């Protein structure tokens, strides 16, 4: 799956990390978020940062950084345009409604 900055994603898996020394706001399963940054760290995987969640920077193996979230915890949101014309045709029997002048 290709992810990109600005893309809407939904959280599909809870965090398995429960830190008491560095409390962070974590995404909630089922909630929709917007990606603001993507980075890959060798040996650690790919992380994303979200517009809706901003945490304080904390010490990491790569310096003092804001905690990101593993990309595997998310899936892209499938946005479909709603088109009700098929239902309008069902109601009118395929005929256009009469217009009143």
Estimated radius of gyration: 21 Å
Looking at how many chains there are and whether they match, the oligomeric state comes to: single chain
Major beta sheet, strand line-up: 6-3-2-1-7
Q: How many domain regions?
A: 1
Q: Tally of extended strands? A: 7
The number of helical elements comes to 1
Describe the structure.
- This protein has one domain (8-92).
- The chain has one helix at residues 85-92, and strands at 8-11, 32-41, 45-50, 58-60, 63-65, 69-70, 74-76.
- It is mainly beta.
- The strands form two sheets. It has a five-stranded antiparallel sheet, with no helix packed on it.
- Strand 4 (58-60) and strand 5 form a beta hairpin.
- The longest helix is centred in the C-terminal third of the chain and has 8 residues, at 85-92.
- It is 8% helix and 31% strand.
How would the blueprint of this fold be written?
Blueprint: E1 8-11, E2 32-41, E3 45-50, E4 58-60, E5 63-65, E6 69-70, E7 74-76, H1 85-92
Antiparallel strand pairs: 1-2, 1-7, 2-3, 3-6, 4-5
In brief, what are we looking at here?
With 101 residues, the chain is mostly beta strands. It has one helix at 85-92; strands at residues 8-11, 32-41, 45-50, 58-60, 63-65, 69-70, 74-76.
Task: List its salient traits.
mainly beta; 8% helix; 1 helix; elongated; five-stranded antiparallel beta sheet; 7 strands; 101 residues
